[in-house]
């Protein structure tokens, strides 16, 4: 079979060692680093990715000392007894010919504890703790700690280290006038500001010798005011080469930047242009990052000389077999990362273990095990939404005989509405993946068939799994039956005509999605140039940080997004992506109103009360997005007839169309049935 991805799968000779391909698994904190017995689980997690064909893995960020920890009990590599537990990880990865580097990360002013240090005593907008300014002694000590951490990593069997110099962490803080206001030899001119990273690299190279990999994560585009200038990025890149760096990895944006860099609405490969520009000036291999989630986009970046390697973190959570499938010409069977952040980054920022919405086995490799079934059963699954699909495919893979029913003519359930929302085009990929998986696992798919209790009982199934999803909740507002009142399914499923002025009732995830749908003429996710303009990314790099004013999008409609609660509109959205959705609607002049009382709907619009004032909101249509109720009609009848029956997904709990919980529940039930 001809290799479809010759550049992606080509080995990379680093002189003293060779990587088997151009795929770098980017650093990602999982939370296992701090769990009891977490390193054994971490070893299983990385082992699956090494077995799946990844050339080079970089661990989540580990601090070189106590003060640099991300959180009070964060991991560090600073004592001889830290070595043993890491050895489990390196041994597991080396079984499959992959290489692994430990990422050394000092959080600086992003450290979420009162002992934080930074170049200057300036509090980060995303952290309640104000750091102390480092003394010269502390700076010199920290450089030594990096070298010590690297040496310990080498003892633990790592092939090298990645020095985290981007995303607004300590090294990045030294480099930029935004956070470095020092007047000594470590601040002021760029020569002084870049002393810190250069001294670290020299110390680490001296500690490791010539035959270890040193990756430096260089912030190429800070996307904050008073960040880097392009000439500074290039100057530092060249000096890092001379100081002994093996590979330059790209860093994009600080955590406090108000430009999205990895959420699902960011176009694929949106930042490879800056990697290409920096690569032209350097001689060591350079890595492209962010929203590279298919072998096709990775191959294009490498083939067009934008980079020498591609970094993927979340896509390898979603599918550990990514590289093997690409190599076998099976890319249509890759479980594609949809960049939702719901189970990975959102979990990490809430101090929970990371996982993956489309692959709940990620980071649960030891707990969520799919073994061949002891007793093979005949199973019926009603509902081919995310929960039903996950259950059916996993159960069939274990050897059960599975019939999957859905009254609709296509698989996907609520995903079929979500995929239409501008910025959520990646949901098509999940449905494509499940379509192939149904074929591969032998699930009998029966679409366009509504099931009855009698019909199911007549089939004599061992178990029936109800994944029947949800129905929109009815609201009790006088006038709700008037013809200009629509439900979200009327808009997203039936594409009914909607006027120029619209009130959306309910500001949860669906209310935001419907508002996005109604105010967007063209999805910018599919046009990187227009997307960059909208978010104010300056590709000419004429100012520090690469920013220019954001361009609000014109909206074809005037929309009011209303909620009863007094809390901030959008408060319940994802921790790492909610602000993006709010910003999108704000740019389209959507009125986001909280504390609204609905009095009645009249032909002219809706009568509401807000801040003690009654008013008539004159609108052409009212769209109801006020939550859902489980569809469980079959459950009680089947149970009463003595049939073994299980509820999963929305049919079990109808909370905010939670695909993460639905897929996990389906997978967990399949593992134990």
TrEMBL record:
Highest taxon in the source lineage: Bacteria
Entry keyword Flavoprotein: yes
GO BP terms: fatty acid beta-oxidation, unsaturated, even number, reductase/isomerase pathway
E.C. number(s) listed in UniProt: 1.3.1.34
NADH:flavin oxidoreductase/NADH oxidase N-terminal domain: residues covered: 8-330
Positions of the FAD/NAD(P)-binding domain: 378-645
Presence of the UniProt keyword Lyase in the record: no
Cofactor entry: [4Fe-4S] cluster; FMN
Keywords on record: Flavoprotein, FMN, Iron, Iron-sulfur, Metal-binding, Oxidoreductase
Pfam family, any one: Pyr_redox_2
PANTHER family membership: 2,4-DIENOYL-COA REDUCTASE, 2,4-DIENOYL-COA REDUCTASE [(2E)-ENOYL-COA-PRODUCING]
Family designation: In the N-terminal section; belongs to the NADH:flavin oxidoreductase/NADH oxidase family.
Protein name per its UniProtKB record: 2,4-dienoyl-CoA reductase
Species assigned in the record: Idiomarina zobellii
Gene field: fadH
């Amino acid at each position: 079979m001809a290799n479809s991805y010759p550049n992606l799968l080509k080995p990379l000779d680093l002189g003293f060692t060779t990587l088997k391909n151009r795929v770098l698994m980017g650093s990602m904190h999982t939370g296992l680093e701090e769990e009891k017995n977490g390193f054994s689980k971490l070893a299983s997690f990385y082992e699956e990715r090494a077995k799946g064909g990844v050339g080079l893995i970089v661990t989540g960020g580990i601090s070189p000392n106590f003060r640099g920890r991300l959180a009070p009990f964060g991991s560090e590599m600073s004592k001889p007894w830290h070595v043993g537990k890491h050895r489990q990880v390196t041994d597991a990865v080396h079984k499959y010919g992959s290489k692994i580097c430990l990422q050394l990360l000092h959080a600086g002013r992003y450290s979420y504890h009162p002992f934080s240090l930074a170049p200057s005593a300036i509090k980060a907008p995303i952290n309640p703790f104000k750091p102390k300014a480092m003394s010269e002694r502390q700076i010199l000590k920290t450089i030594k700690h990096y070298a010590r951490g690297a040496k310990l990593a080498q003892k633990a069997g790592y092939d090298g280290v990645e020095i985290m110099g981007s995303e607004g962490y300590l090294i990045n803080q030294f480099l930029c006038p935004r956070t470095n206001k020092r007047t000594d030899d470590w601040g002021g001119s760029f020569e002084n500001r870049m002393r810190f990273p250069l001294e670290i690299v020299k110390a680490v190279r001296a500690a490791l010798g010539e035959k270890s990999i040193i990756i430096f994560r260089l912030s190429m585009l800070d996307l904050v005011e008073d960040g880097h200038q392009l000439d500074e990025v290039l100057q530092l890149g060249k000096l890092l080469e001379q100081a002994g760096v093996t590979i330059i990895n790209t860093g994009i944006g600080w955590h406090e930047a108000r430009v999205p860099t990895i959420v699902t609405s960011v176009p694929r490969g949106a930042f490879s242009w800056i990697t290409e520009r920096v690569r032209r000036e350097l001689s060591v291999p350079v890595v492209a990052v962010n929203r590279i989630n298919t072998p096709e986009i990775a191959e294009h970046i490498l083939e067009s000389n934008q980079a020498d390697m591609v970094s993927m973190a979340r896509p390898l959570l979603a599918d550990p077999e990514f590289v093997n499938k690409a190599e076998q010409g099976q890319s249509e069977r890759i479980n594609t990362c949809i960049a939702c952040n719901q189970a990975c980054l959102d979990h990490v920022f809430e101090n929970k273990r990371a996982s993956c919405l489309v692959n709940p086995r990620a980071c649960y490799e030891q707990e969520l095990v799919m073994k061949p079934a002891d007793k093979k059963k005949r199973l019926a699954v009603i509902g081919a939404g995310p929960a039903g699909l996950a259950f059916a495919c996993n159960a069939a893979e274990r050897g059960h005989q599975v019939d999957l029913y859905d009254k609709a003519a296509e698989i996907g359930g609520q995903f079929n509405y979500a995929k239409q929302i501008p910025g959520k085009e990646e949901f098509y990929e999940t449905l494509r993946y499940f379509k192939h998986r149904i074929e591969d696992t032998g699930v009998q798919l029966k679409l366009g068939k509504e099931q009855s209790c009698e019909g199911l009982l007549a089939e004599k199934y061992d178990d029936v799994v109800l994944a029947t999803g949800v129905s929109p909740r009815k609201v009790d507002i006088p006038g709700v039956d008037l013809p200009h009142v629509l439900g979200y399914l009327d808009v997203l499923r039936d594409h009914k005509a909607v006027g120029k002025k619209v009130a959306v009732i309910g500001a949860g995830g669906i209310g935001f999605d419907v508002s996005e749908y109604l105010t967007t003429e063209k999805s910018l996710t599919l046009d990187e140039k227009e997307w960059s303009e909208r978010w104010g990314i300056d590709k000419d790099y004429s100012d520090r940080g690469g920013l220019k004013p954001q361009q609000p999008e014109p909206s074809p409609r005037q929309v009011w997004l209303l909620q009863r609660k007094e809390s901030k509109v959008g408060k319940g959205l994802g921790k790492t992506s909610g602000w993006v959705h709010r910003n999108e609607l704000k740019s389209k002049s959507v009125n986001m109103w909280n504390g609204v009382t609905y009095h009645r709907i009249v032909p002219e619009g809706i009568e509401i009360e807000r801040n003690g004032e009654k008013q008539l909101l004159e609108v052409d249509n009212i769209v109801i997005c006020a939550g859902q109720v489980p569809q469980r009609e079959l459950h009680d009848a089947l149970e009463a007839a003595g049939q073994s029956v299980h509820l999963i997904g929305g049919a079990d709990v109808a909370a905010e169309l939670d695909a993460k919980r639905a897929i996990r529940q389906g997978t967990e039930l399949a593992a134990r049935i």
